[in-house]
Prior knowledge:
Layout: E1 5-8, H1 13-26, E2 33-37, E3 52-56, H2 62-69, E4 74-77, H3 86-107, E5 111-115, H4 127-140, E6 145-151, E7 154-155, H5 162-171, E8 175-178, E9 183-184, E10 187-188, H6 189-200, E11 209-212, E12 218-219, H7 220-231, E13 237-240, H8 242-254, H9 263-268, H10 292-300, H11 306-316
Parallel strand pairs: 1-2, 1-4, 2-3, 4-5, 5-6, 6-11, 7-10, 8-13
Antiparallel strand pairs: 9-12
Helix pairs in contact: 1-6, 2-3, 3-4, 5-7, 7-10
Amino acid sequence: MIRHVAVTGGTGFVGQAVCEQLVERSGGAGGRIVVPTRRIRRGQAMQSLPTVECVQADVHDERALARVLAGCDAVIHLVAILHGSEADFQRVHVDLPRKLVAACRAAGVRRIVHVSALGVAADAPARYLRSKAAGERVLLESGLDVTVLRPSVIFGARDRFLNLFAQLQALAPFMPLGGAGARFQPVWVEDVAAAAVRCLDRPQTIGQTIECAGPEVLTLAQLVRLAGRLAGCERPVLPLPEAIARLQAALMELLPGEPLMSRDNVDSMRVPNVATGRLPGLETLGITPAPVEGVAAGYLGGRSGPSRFLPWRARRG
């Protein structure tokens, strides 16, 4: 049985949900959950979880990564970026998986669950999608026991997706929106986390690529309106032509901090972010995906939400 698990990217949005479910999986029966982080303060919220150990380490340092993996039975790999240069995407999405493979071999770890994305392809129009496809190849061709998960856009109480659109509508009289017609199949973070954890106990998923998608296909404009309506501040959506959307994104890239939208994001939205239906889905893991409105109403609507989440938690079984 897999008992000791390392979670790279464990302090992030998806990583926290994964760690919480790993703790539930262990049921107090022991085992370690190791979360490497460059800034140990980022892991403070995780330290309250039993059996979770945050360790200061740079995952891009192959030797440090091997030390983190020592004694582990498996890795759930979540590290990714949405914005950056060609070199940034290469470093995080391709070079890091290569280092992870080497570190796993050095530490004697064979099992990897890797979270990628829907729409990845070597000839995709966006650097993000192309680099994620290359990273998948590195792992699947490594000879290790790898499962790849491809989620659509992920939502949840701590997301920077629906929450962001709700916040913007609270401030703006209307929403100028690039990629308004782009199609998504939003998936709840808890369903993605459940998929990652369940794969650990299902050796039949080794070598598989599993699509993680919700039950509904919605355009970006529909999702923006939904976020506004649930937050009580719905604004009119003004769809932008792609050329104007790219200009808007270029200007956002010049602002300090992480941009709200980049030109590469606009390029990514040319590819439908929906399940192909040609690969296994969440149902093969016994997971009934939650609808976006049923969950998002619990946090965008200003309610505490746990009682609304319980029916969906129960469906994870």
